């Protein structure tokens, strides 16, 4: 958002403009135990951005800016901290030094990468409160990265839920938390603990391992774990063949022999020895009808037919869903979402 606004106002970004932009954008890292250089004093850490960007004109000006940033980050009296090294600070104080180093260039926008996840619960609130106070007093915008949806709900104006590097739902905090539309957002919200023990919420557990980010699933990247996945979500022949092999290993397909994926959208199956393709097909269809709601990959099977001495399964074509705008500021990427121009906004399956 910030970059696109900048582009609109200033044209393309490059060279000197990019350098100027970097001063307005700063980072707070997740791990204050790793992100601070143990050989540098607090003064060196916080003054470094000033010196690299040639912001201050004299040592006095640098010292004044460092002390001011430390005070704003809640390290008081600031003079007591400047000559300390990271190993002489607590986790919370280290993260305050990181915040001071980010603040010293007076940025407009800070990317905070899980800034409290490595800290003790007892000091998280203090750091979060500090960040919220700074947001108000300095007019800052944060891009706050977190796995804690409850925390996002408390601090964010807008929330973008990401899965495997793609935004699957984005909207105001109210829209995303109170009216979640994407199955993954719904699952995340269902497992946020409630302070009211009488409140019963049906928990949706996203099963299975998260896929390898270097080998993103085709179609909707959520489909291998999505509890609502259906035929359009992008199952390929390998995935469906694997599911059939699991059934076969469990003894559910005694009439079926070898199962082989053929390209992206076809599976070839040989009947078991002594079985006719027609009998094997009937037995297979009966098991598919029983299992397709429990084993969602089987929903991708569009048709079963016999060709020569074997059975051929054809799969539905799948595709990746696009972010669809449901309301001003609220967009969702899921095939189950009906855009508001054609129907009311709802997950329909
Ligand atoms: S498109 Fe929607 S229903 Fe299909 S897998 Fe993705 S999130 Fe689930």
Structure report:
The structure is a single chain. This protein has 349 residues and is of the alpha+beta class. Among the domains are: 2-145, Rossmann fold; 235-315, Gyrase A, domain 2 (2-Layer Sandwich). It is built from 12 helices and 11 strands. It has helices spanning 2-10, 15-24, 32-35, 42-52, 59-72, 91-103, 121-138, 149-155, 173-178, 183-190, 237-249, 277-291, and strands at residues 25-28, 109-113, 141-145, 158-163, 166-172, 256-262, 266-271, 301-307, 310-315, 324-327, 330-332. The strands form 3 sheets. It has a 4-stranded antiparallel β-sheet with strand order 4-5-11-10. Strands 6-7-9-8 form a 4-stranded antiparallel β-sheet, covered by helices on one side. The chain has a 3-stranded parallel β-sheet with strand order 1-2-3. Strand 4 and strand 5 form a beta hairpin. It is elongated, with a radius of gyration of 27 Å. The mean pLDDT is 91. The site of iron/sulfur cluster has 13 residues, from loops.
Q: Can you name the CATH architecture of the domain at 2-145?
A: 3-Layer(aba) Sandwich
- CA radius of gyration is 27 Å
Number of helices: 12
Report the major sheet.
4 strands, antiparallel
């Amino acid at each position: 958002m910030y970059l696109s606004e900048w582009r609109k106002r200033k044209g393309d970004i490059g060279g000197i403009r990019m350098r100027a932009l970097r001063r307005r954008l700063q980072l707070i890292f997740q791990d204050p135990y790793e992100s601070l250089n143990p050989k540098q004093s607090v003064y060196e850490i916080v003054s470094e951005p000033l010196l690299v960007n040639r912001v201050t004109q004299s040592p006095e000006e640098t010292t004044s800016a460092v002390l001011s940033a430390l005070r704003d980050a809640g390290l008081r009296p600031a003079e007591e901290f400047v000559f300390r090294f990271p190993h002489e600070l607590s986790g919370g104080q280290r993260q305050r030094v990181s915040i001071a180093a980010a603040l010293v260039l007076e940025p407009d926008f800070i990317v905070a990468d899980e800034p409290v996840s490595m800290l003790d619960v007892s000091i998280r609130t203090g750091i979060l409160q500090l960040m919220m106070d700074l947001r108000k007093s300095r007019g800052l915008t944060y891009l706050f990265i977190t796995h804690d949806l409850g925390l996002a709900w408390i601090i964010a104006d807008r929330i973008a839920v990401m899965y495997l590097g793609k935004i699957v739902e984005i909207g105001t905090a109210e829209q995303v938390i109170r009216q979640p539309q994407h199955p993954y957002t719904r699952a995340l919200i269902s497992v946020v603990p409630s302070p009211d023990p009488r409140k019963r919420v049906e928990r949706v557990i996203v099963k299975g391992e998260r896929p390898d980010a270097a080998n993103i699933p085709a179609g909707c990247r959520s489909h291998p774990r999505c509890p609502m996945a259906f035929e359009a979500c992008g199952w390929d022949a390998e995935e469906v063949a694997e599911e059939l092999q699991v059934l076969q290993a469990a003894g559910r397909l005694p009439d079926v022999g070898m199962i082989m994926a053929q390209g992206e959208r076809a599976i070839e199956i040989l009947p078991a020895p002594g079985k006719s393709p027609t009998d094997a097909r009937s037995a297979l269809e009966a098991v598919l009808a029983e299992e397709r709601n429990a084993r969602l990959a089987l929903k991708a099977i569009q048709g079963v037919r016999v060709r020569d001495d074997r059975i051929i399964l054809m799969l539905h074509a799948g595709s990746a869903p696009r972010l669809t705008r449901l309301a001003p500021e609220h967009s969702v990427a899921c095939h189950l979402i009906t855009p508001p121009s054609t129907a009311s906004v709802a997950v329909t399956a």
